[in-house]
Amino acid sequence: MATLRRMSGPGLLIALWFLFYFPIPTRSVCAGTVPVETYDQLLSAIRQTRADSRARIESAAEQEKVREAWKTGKLIDEHVLRHRERADYAQAVIKKLAADLGMSTSELYRMLKFARTYPIVATWPQLSWAHYRVLLAVHDEAQRKSLEERAIKEHWSLAELREVIREEVGPAPAPDPDPDVPDDGPTELPEITPGPLDTYQIIRLKDSLKIDLGFGIYRDVPKKWAGKFEEGSIVKFENGKLKEAGQAPLYTYRAQVTQVVDGDTFHALIDLGFETTVAQRVRLRRIDAPELVTAEGKEAKDYLEKILARDQGRVVMQSRELDQHGRPIADVWVQGQAVDRELVDQGLAEVVRR
Fold it and tell me: Domain count of the chain?
């Protein structure tokens, strides 16, 4: 514009004519984007942008999980080496870490094994932590390396990697013994059945007998039955009556799932009986699913949602223990089938040692 102000006469007219017929191209507001004409094009472009962004976030999260696993294992390894003269120190420290970090001992052992299996830091952008957890079960180093390279080159999914290992490796031979890392333990879950519903124990609190409903909730023994039971009795509430039940597993409840959190955790309304319902966050007891920020974690969550929706969210759960936050760790059944077994069979979760 300053140049145009200094021009006059024919030169100015020529310059204006040139700008009119050959306008200077302007850049899009966001460099690298393609201008969109219609609203539908705009909506489609934004959706694609969001999908691309989420894919990059998932990829970055998976890479960071691998690095986190390796670094965690390396820290444990270095710490254990400093105390190698103390017998069983690794087992003790991993058990304490699991409690303080809210993790399973199986996962911490696996991270330690990962750091020892891959002692030199490398770049792991192509495979997820779930892939490496599966590869760690292949004890032959050359075979494991070959599988790793093929998985990267051919972009195998976790399910594809598992299938190739089943076909080509078969049952893994016993690894060289590592005094700090026990064997991986069971890879399949035994069949389990829930205890009877509406079954409770009579306990004594402040010199009076109470019905223990679980979760720190108690009810007075109705007066008409107060003289029939003693402390420690197992009772069942059936057809409006409280009667002796003999020895039976406790803390089995009906529940209604309200929200799935991830591949091994959900929220539910739990019917304790005696017109008492509590809302709890429930953690499946025997398995560990990948973290939700990973593609495998989202797949596990989606599959758990499908399982829990089979009976409109109605489940039966049995919980004999609570986590460090006082939330139930439970076995859960839908239409008589154990939820955790199906997740393990589908390769979406792993059996844990707690």
Answer: 3
